[in-house]
Inverse folding.
Protein backbone atom coordinates (compact mmCIF):
# COMPACT_ATOMS: atom_id res chain seq x y z
CA UNK A 1 0.00 0.00 0.00
CA UNK A 2 1.33 3.45 -0.92
CA UNK A 3 2.03 5.81 1.93
CA UNK A 4 -0.51 8.40 0.72
CA UNK A 5 -3.09 5.62 0.59
CA UNK A 6 -2.19 4.52 4.12
CA UNK A 7 -2.58 8.09 5.40
CA UNK A 8 -6.05 8.39 3.85
CA UNK A 9 -7.06 5.09 5.45
CA UNK A 10 -5.69 6.20 8.82
CA UNK A 11 -7.56 9.51 8.72
CA UNK A 12 -10.82 7.64 8.08
CA UNK A 13 -10.12 5.21 10.94
CA UNK A 14 -9.50 8.17 13.20
CA UNK A 15 -12.78 9.83 12.18
CA UNK A 16 -14.62 6.61 13.06
CA UNK A 17 -12.91 6.51 16.46
CA UNK A 18 -13.63 10.19 17.09
CA UNK A 19 -17.29 9.40 16.55
CA UNK A 20 -16.96 6.54 19.05
CA UNK A 21 -15.11 8.77 21.52
CA UNK A 22 -12.15 6.38 21.83
CA UNK A 23 -9.35 8.89 22.54
CA UNK A 24 -6.83 6.20 23.49
CA UNK A 25 -7.32 4.30 20.23
CA UNK A 26 -6.85 7.50 18.21
CA UNK A 27 -3.54 8.19 19.93
CA UNK A 28 -2.45 4.61 19.23
CA UNK A 29 -3.37 4.85 15.53
CA UNK A 30 -1.49 8.14 15.09
CA UNK A 31 1.55 6.74 16.89
CA UNK A 32 1.58 3.62 14.68
CA UNK A 33 1.63 5.86 11.59
CA UNK A 34 5.04 7.28 12.74
CA UNK A 35 4.45 10.61 11.04
CA UNK A 36 7.82 12.12 11.91
CA UNK A 37 9.55 9.78 9.43
CA UNK A 38 7.96 11.32 6.33
CA UNK A 39 6.25 14.49 7.58
CA UNK A 40 9.06 16.82 6.49
CA UNK A 41 9.17 15.44 2.94
CA UNK A 42 5.40 15.81 2.52
CA UNK A 43 5.39 19.27 4.10
CA UNK A 44 8.06 20.36 1.63
CA UNK A 45 5.92 19.09 -1.25
CA UNK A 46 2.88 20.93 0.14
CA UNK A 47 4.83 24.18 0.41
CA UNK A 48 6.19 23.81 -3.12
CA UNK A 49 2.84 22.95 -4.67
CA UNK A 50 0.87 25.60 -2.81
CA UNK A 51 3.50 28.23 -3.66
CA UNK A 52 3.25 27.20 -7.33
CA UNK A 53 -0.52 27.59 -7.14
CA UNK A 54 -0.22 30.98 -5.50
CA UNK A 55 2.19 32.20 -8.19
CA UNK A 56 0.12 30.71 -11.01
CA UNK A 57 -2.94 32.48 -9.63
CA UNK A 58 -1.10 35.78 -9.42
CA UNK A 59 0.21 35.57 -13.01
CA UNK A 60 -3.17 34.42 -14.37
CA UNK A 61 -5.07 37.22 -12.62
CA UNK A 62 -2.86 39.80 -14.20
CA UNK A 63 -3.57 38.50 -17.71
CA UNK A 64 -7.01 36.96 -17.87
CA UNK A 65 -10.59 37.10 -16.60
CA UNK A 66 -13.43 34.54 -16.37
CA UNK A 67 -13.20 31.28 -18.31
CA UNK A 68 -9.78 32.05 -19.84
CA UNK A 69 -8.41 32.84 -16.37
CA UNK A 70 -9.23 29.36 -15.08
CA UNK A 71 -7.84 27.63 -18.17
CA UNK A 72 -4.63 29.59 -17.99
CA UNK A 73 -4.39 29.04 -14.23
CA UNK A 74 -4.51 25.23 -14.60
CA UNK A 75 -1.98 25.28 -17.40
CA UNK A 76 0.37 27.61 -15.53
CA UNK A 77 0.00 25.61 -12.30
CA UNK A 78 0.82 22.29 -14.01
CA UNK A 79 3.85 23.75 -15.74
CA UNK A 80 5.20 24.99 -12.44
CA UNK A 81 4.78 21.69 -10.55
CA UNK A 82 6.50 19.45 -13.10
CA UNK A 83 6.18 16.22 -11.05
CA UNK A 84 2.62 15.05 -10.47
CA UNK A 85 3.76 12.92 -7.51
CA UNK A 86 4.29 16.20 -5.59
CA UNK A 87 0.58 16.83 -5.82
CA UNK A 88 -0.23 13.49 -4.19
CA UNK A 89 2.28 14.25 -1.45
CA UNK A 90 0.77 17.71 -0.94
CA UNK A 91 -2.66 16.17 -0.47
CA UNK A 92 -1.26 13.66 2.02
CA UNK A 93 0.50 16.52 3.83
CA UNK A 94 -2.80 18.31 4.39
CA UNK A 95 -4.24 15.21 5.99
CA UNK A 96 -1.10 14.89 8.13
CA UNK A 97 -1.36 18.53 9.35
CA UNK A 98 -4.87 17.70 10.46
CA UNK A 99 -3.70 14.62 12.37
CA UNK A 100 -0.91 16.58 14.00
CA UNK A 101 -3.35 19.25 15.18
CA UNK A 102 -5.73 16.62 16.43
CA UNK A 103 -2.98 14.88 18.39
CA UNK A 104 -2.06 18.18 20.06
CA UNK A 105 -5.67 18.79 21.07
CA UNK A 106 -6.06 15.26 22.37
CA UNK A 107 -3.03 15.64 24.64
CA UNK A 108 -5.13 17.64 27.10
CA UNK A 109 -8.20 15.47 26.83
CA UNK A 110 -8.72 12.59 29.20
CA UNK A 111 -10.82 9.68 27.90
CA UNK A 112 -14.35 10.94 28.58
CA UNK A 113 -16.25 7.70 28.30
CA UNK A 114 -15.52 4.05 28.86
CA UNK A 115 -15.11 2.02 25.71
CA UNK A 116 -16.44 -1.50 26.06
CA UNK A 117 -14.33 -4.00 24.13
CA UNK A 118 -15.96 -7.08 22.64
CA UNK A 119 -14.29 -9.59 20.31
CA UNK A 120 -16.09 -8.30 17.20
CA UNK A 121 -16.98 -4.73 18.15
CA UNK A 122 -16.34 -1.82 20.50
CA UNK A 123 -18.96 0.49 21.89
CA UNK A 124 -19.56 3.47 24.14
CA UNK A 125 -22.69 4.43 25.99
CA UNK A 126 -23.73 8.05 26.44
CA UNK A 127 -26.19 8.59 29.25
CA UNK A 128 -29.05 11.09 29.28
CA UNK A 129 -31.38 9.13 31.63
CA UNK A 130 -33.91 7.81 30.80
CA UNK A 131 -32.36 8.06 27.33
CA UNK A 132 -29.18 6.25 26.31
CA UNK A 133 -27.18 6.44 23.12
CA UNK A 134 -24.97 3.52 22.21
CA UNK A 135 -22.38 3.95 19.48
CA UNK A 136 -20.69 0.82 18.20
CA UNK A 137 -17.90 0.24 15.71
CA UNK A 138 -18.20 -3.20 14.18
CA UNK A 139 -15.28 -5.20 12.80
CA UNK A 140 -15.00 -4.16 9.14
CA UNK A 141 -14.83 -7.75 7.91
CA UNK A 142 -18.31 -8.55 9.20
CA UNK A 143 -21.61 -8.29 7.42
CA UNK A 144 -24.81 -7.46 9.27
CA UNK A 145 -28.41 -8.39 8.75
CA UNK A 146 -31.54 -7.14 10.49
CA UNK A 147 -33.45 -10.43 10.13
CA UNK A 148 -32.07 -11.98 13.31
CA UNK A 149 -32.45 -8.66 15.08
CA UNK A 150 -36.19 -8.38 14.39
CA UNK A 151 -36.74 -11.91 15.74
CA UNK A 152 -34.70 -11.17 18.85
CA UNK A 153 -36.49 -7.86 19.53
CA UNK A 154 -39.86 -9.59 19.23
CA UNK A 155 -38.70 -12.25 21.73
CA UNK A 156 -37.91 -9.39 24.12
CA UNK A 157 -41.50 -8.11 23.77
CA UNK A 158 -40.82 -5.30 21.32
CA UNK A 159 -43.02 -4.50 18.38
CA UNK A 160 -40.91 -3.63 15.38
CA UNK A 161 -42.67 -0.85 13.53
CA UNK A 162 -40.35 0.27 10.79
CA UNK A 163 -37.59 -1.42 8.85
CA UNK A 164 -35.72 0.06 5.97
CA UNK A 165 -32.84 -2.05 4.80
CA UNK A 166 -30.70 -1.46 1.77
CA UNK A 167 -27.09 -0.53 2.28
CA UNK A 168 -28.19 1.45 5.27
CA UNK A 169 -30.55 -0.10 7.82
CA UNK A 170 -32.99 1.74 10.02
CA UNK A 171 -35.16 -0.03 12.59
CA UNK A 172 -37.65 1.35 15.09
CA UNK A 173 -39.09 -0.82 17.89
CA UNK A 174 -41.21 -0.14 20.97
CA UNK A 175 -42.74 -1.97 23.91
CA UNK A 176 -44.16 -1.13 27.34
CA UNK A 177 -40.53 -0.95 28.45
CA UNK A 178 -39.37 1.72 26.05
CA UNK A 179 -38.56 2.91 22.54
CA UNK A 180 -35.54 1.94 20.43
CA UNK A 181 -34.19 3.48 17.26
CA UNK A 182 -31.35 1.70 15.45
CA UNK A 183 -29.44 3.04 12.48
CA UNK A 184 -26.65 1.13 10.82
CA UNK A 185 -24.18 2.08 8.14
CA UNK A 186 -21.25 -0.24 8.60
CA UNK A 187 -18.94 -0.11 10.43
CA UNK A 188 -21.09 2.25 12.56
CA UNK A 189 -24.21 1.32 14.49
CA UNK A 190 -26.11 3.88 16.53
CA UNK A 191 -28.75 2.75 19.02
CA UNK A 192 -30.96 5.27 20.78
CA UNK A 193 -32.86 3.77 23.68
CA UNK A 194 -35.54 5.62 25.67
CA UNK A 195 -36.65 3.60 28.67
CA UNK A 196 -39.75 4.24 30.75
CA UNK A 197 -37.61 4.16 33.89
CA UNK A 198 -33.88 5.05 33.92
CA UNK A 199 -31.74 1.90 33.94
CA UNK A 200 -28.27 2.00 32.40
CA UNK A 201 -27.65 -1.73 32.85
CA UNK A 202 -30.85 -2.58 30.97
CA UNK A 203 -29.97 -0.14 28.17
CA UNK A 204 -26.54 -1.72 27.91
CA UNK A 205 -28.02 -5.22 27.92
CA UNK A 206 -30.44 -4.27 25.13
CA UNK A 207 -27.64 -2.58 23.18
CA UNK A 208 -25.41 -5.65 23.31
CA UNK A 209 -28.32 -7.91 22.41
CA UNK A 210 -29.07 -5.72 19.37
CA UNK A 211 -25.46 -5.66 18.15
CA UNK A 212 -24.99 -9.40 18.70
CA UNK A 213 -28.18 -10.11 16.74
CA UNK A 214 -27.02 -7.87 13.91
CA UNK A 215 -23.72 -9.66 13.46
CA UNK A 216 -24.78 -13.23 14.15
CA UNK B 1 -23.18 18.02 2.26
CA UNK B 2 -26.10 15.95 0.96
CA UNK B 3 -24.39 15.46 -2.41
CA UNK B 4 -21.11 14.50 -0.71
CA UNK B 5 -22.89 11.98 1.53
CA UNK B 6 -24.78 10.56 -1.45
CA UNK B 7 -21.52 10.16 -3.32
CA UNK B 8 -19.91 8.18 -0.49
CA UNK B 9 -23.08 6.11 -0.21
CA UNK B 10 -22.90 5.39 -3.94
CA UNK B 11 -19.23 4.38 -3.78
CA UNK B 12 -19.96 2.08 -0.86
CA UNK B 13 -22.90 0.60 -2.75
CA UNK B 14 -20.66 -0.12 -5.75
CA UNK B 15 -18.21 -2.00 -3.54
CA UNK B 16 -15.51 0.66 -3.19
CA UNK B 17 -13.67 0.55 0.13
CA UNK B 18 -14.75 3.95 1.48
CA UNK B 19 -11.93 3.73 3.99
CA UNK B 20 -9.65 4.46 1.03
CA UNK B 21 -11.55 7.57 0.03
CA UNK B 22 -10.10 10.85 1.31
CA UNK B 23 -12.50 13.74 1.84
CA UNK B 24 -10.57 16.91 0.98
CA UNK B 25 -13.41 19.45 0.88
CA UNK B 26 -12.62 20.72 4.43
CA UNK B 27 -9.04 21.57 3.36
CA UNK B 28 -9.93 23.12 0.03
CA UNK B 29 -9.31 26.80 0.63
CA UNK B 30 -6.51 29.34 0.53
CA UNK B 31 -3.22 27.67 -0.30
CA UNK B 32 -4.97 24.38 -1.04
CA UNK B 33 -7.74 25.74 -3.26
CA UNK B 34 -6.55 23.45 -6.07
CA UNK B 35 -7.62 20.34 -4.13
CA UNK B 36 -10.49 18.27 -5.51
CA UNK B 37 -13.34 17.25 -3.19
CA UNK B 38 -12.26 13.61 -2.93
CA UNK B 39 -9.34 11.31 -3.71
CA UNK B 40 -10.09 7.62 -4.22
CA UNK B 41 -7.29 5.17 -3.60
CA UNK B 42 -9.19 1.95 -4.24
CA UNK B 43 -8.11 0.07 -7.37
CA UNK B 44 -11.41 -1.85 -7.40
CA UNK B 45 -12.93 1.19 -9.14
CA UNK B 46 -11.98 -0.69 -12.28
CA UNK B 47 -14.71 -3.25 -11.63
CA UNK B 48 -17.41 -0.59 -11.31
CA UNK B 49 -19.30 1.17 -14.10
CA UNK B 50 -17.74 4.47 -12.96
CA UNK B 51 -14.59 4.04 -15.02
CA UNK B 52 -14.50 2.69 -18.56
CA UNK B 53 -10.73 2.27 -18.95
CA UNK B 54 -8.43 0.05 -16.94
CA UNK B 55 -5.22 1.99 -17.49
CA UNK B 56 -5.68 4.65 -14.84
CA UNK B 57 -3.34 5.49 -12.01
CA UNK B 58 -4.35 6.10 -8.42
CA UNK B 59 -5.65 8.26 -6.93
CA UNK B 60 -8.77 9.03 -8.91
CA UNK B 61 -9.91 12.59 -8.18
CA UNK B 62 -13.56 13.51 -7.72
CA UNK B 63 -15.60 16.68 -7.64
CA UNK B 64 -19.10 16.68 -6.22
CA UNK B 65 -21.82 19.21 -6.95
CA UNK B 66 -25.29 19.40 -5.50
CA UNK B 67 -28.30 21.34 -6.62
CA UNK B 68 -31.83 21.70 -5.33
CA UNK B 69 -33.05 22.32 -8.87
CA UNK B 70 -31.81 20.84 -12.17
CA UNK B 71 -28.25 20.38 -13.39
CA UNK B 72 -26.44 23.66 -13.50
CA UNK B 73 -23.97 24.19 -16.36
CA UNK B 74 -21.89 26.65 -14.36
CA UNK B 75 -21.38 24.02 -11.66
CA UNK B 76 -20.19 21.51 -14.26
CA UNK B 77 -17.81 24.07 -15.69
CA UNK B 78 -16.41 24.79 -12.22
CA UNK B 79 -15.94 21.07 -11.53
CA UNK B 80 -14.09 20.59 -14.83
CA UNK B 81 -11.80 23.51 -14.05
CA UNK B 82 -11.09 22.09 -10.61
CA UNK B 83 -10.19 18.67 -12.00
CA UNK B 84 -8.10 20.30 -14.71
CA UNK B 85 -5.76 21.46 -11.93
CA UNK B 86 -4.93 17.92 -10.87
CA UNK B 87 -5.23 15.79 -14.01
CA UNK B 88 -1.76 15.74 -15.54
CA UNK B 89 -1.20 12.63 -17.60
CA UNK B 90 -3.30 10.41 -19.84
CA UNK B 91 -3.52 7.97 -16.93
CA UNK B 92 -4.99 10.47 -14.49
CA UNK B 93 -8.73 10.14 -14.14
CA UNK B 94 -11.37 12.32 -12.55
CA UNK B 95 -15.02 11.87 -11.75
CA UNK B 96 -17.73 14.49 -11.43
CA UNK B 97 -20.80 13.55 -9.45
CA UNK B 98 -23.80 15.82 -9.75
CA UNK B 99 -26.76 15.28 -7.44
CA UNK B 100 -29.91 17.28 -8.09
CA UNK B 101 -33.58 17.29 -7.11
CA UNK B 102 -36.09 16.18 -9.72
CA UNK B 103 -38.24 16.07 -7.45
CA UNK B 104 -36.33 13.28 -5.64
CA UNK B 105 -32.54 13.29 -5.57
CA UNK B 106 -30.96 11.91 -8.73
CA UNK B 107 -27.32 11.74 -9.67
CA UNK B 108 -25.13 11.68 -12.75
CA UNK B 109 -21.48 10.69 -12.97
CA UNK B 110 -19.12 12.11 -15.57
CA UNK B 111 -15.79 10.47 -16.27
CA UNK B 112 -12.99 12.95 -17.00
CA UNK B 113 -9.68 12.16 -18.71
CA UNK B 114 -6.83 14.34 -19.84
Amino acid sequence: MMLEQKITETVNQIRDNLWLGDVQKIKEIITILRMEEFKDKFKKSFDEVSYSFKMARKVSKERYRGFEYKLFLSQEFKERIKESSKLKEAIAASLLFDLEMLLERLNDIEPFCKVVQKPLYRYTIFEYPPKYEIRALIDRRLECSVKGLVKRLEEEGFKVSKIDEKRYAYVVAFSVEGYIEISMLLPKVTINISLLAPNKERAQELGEMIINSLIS
Amino acid sequence: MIAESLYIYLLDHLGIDVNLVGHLRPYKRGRAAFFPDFVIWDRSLVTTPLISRGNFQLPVYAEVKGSTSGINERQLEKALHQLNNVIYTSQDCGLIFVAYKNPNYEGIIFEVWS
Summary: DSSP finds seven helices and seven strands in chain A. Chain A touches chain B through 32 residues (CB under 8 Å). The mean pLDDT of chain A is 90. The first helix of chain A runs from residue 3 to 20.
